[in-house]
Protein: Nucleobindin-1
Amino acid sequence: MKLKPGWLLLLSISAGVWSVPIDRNGGNQEAKEEVPEENADTGLYYDRYLREVIEVLETDPHFREKLQTANTEDIKNGRLSKELDLVSHHVRTRLDELKRQEVSRLRMLLKAKLDSTNTQSLQMDHASLLKQFEHLDPHNQNTFEAKDLELLISTATKDLENYDAERHEEFKRYEMLKEHERREYLKSLDQEKREREEKRMQELKEKHRQHPKVNAPGSVAQLREVWEETDGLDPQEFNPKTFFKLHDTNEDGVLDEQELEALFTKELEKVYDPKNEEDDMMEMEEERLRMREHIMKNVDTNKDRLVSLEEFLKSTEKKEFSNPKEWETLDAKPVYTEEELQRFEVELRDKEEELKRRAETLRQEQELLKERGKALEAQKREYQQAVLEMSQRQKEQQAADGQPPPAGPNGELQFQPETHKPEDKEAKAPADHEAEAQNNLPAEPPQNLPLHT
Structure:
């Protein structure tokens, strides 16, 4: 999605944080066609939410018209946010839905963070926790209001202004880690191999430094080179106004950061080739960022992160345009000091020790789980043995009584409570009555006794 100039005035979301790939087989236009704009990312953790809100707002004709005519002050002071009340109902409904989805996503992030830190919270106060996110109103989690738009714009503006500094810091840490790993690798070698490897590394470093002169970004020499090699035009006919319009690829009247960075491709090709072992593509992106910052510092007079035609033409009238200082590439001097590297290595050691402690804790917990598993298995075996013994005793008892043991469909023993059938009681009752009657009969006279007269 390509953002309109109104948004770019403040957010500069188009490419200040995007990379423009080097294309050694063709022009910049082909490279742009290979990289869809939808895949670009601002680097903000709420990037998708930001883009979806802008995309929905631009479907409303009234808001889109206001956006086209808005200036930086209109956006900063919240005047544009008030236009939200006039957008159509279906747009508001879609914005409400986007906000609820974002709140749900943030809740999941909070839960994952709490789970990772083993924080026990039976009753999580989401409203309080959501206050740490500044790009939306945490007190209203269901509808998208003017305050949400104002917070989204102001937060994105602030975060993007700090983004370049964060990228520089990230690159510095990358370079320090690379140097740390290089030193650790050399320590692991014996003296002969270490000397040979140090020599090889030094040769690669020198080979990287042997590159053509890099023109200062925004200078007449640099722009003429683009005019001739990229645009295929006669360098003697170089015209700044024509150059501006040629490279304003979306024809919005300004050069945004993506369009500016595309101008540096030829200069970067002089220093970096992804096929060469000695060329680091991370360094190339840092160099691209430095070039863009250089132009913005000298050309973007109103600091809106865009270069207008007027600003561009005025920059061509300055002395620096024709006689710039020689451009120093990153290989001219390190981006960190030895003291910074030492602090970084201490930090790495501390993190490594912490990881070891966590690994040991996990190992102990795993051993404990194994022991508990063994105990449960032993209890299971004891239970099974007890069942077998009980079954055997029942078989023996039934065998002694002359009765076959009850069996299930698979031959297993069945335990049944001992019961008396009703017919047994009925059969027993007549026998008892008969015995009682016999006891009550008179005794018969003895046989063959003498008779008395």
User: Anything to note?
Assistant: The two ends are 145 Å apart (CA to CA). The beta strands are 254-255, 307-308. DSSP finds 18 helices and two strands in the chain.
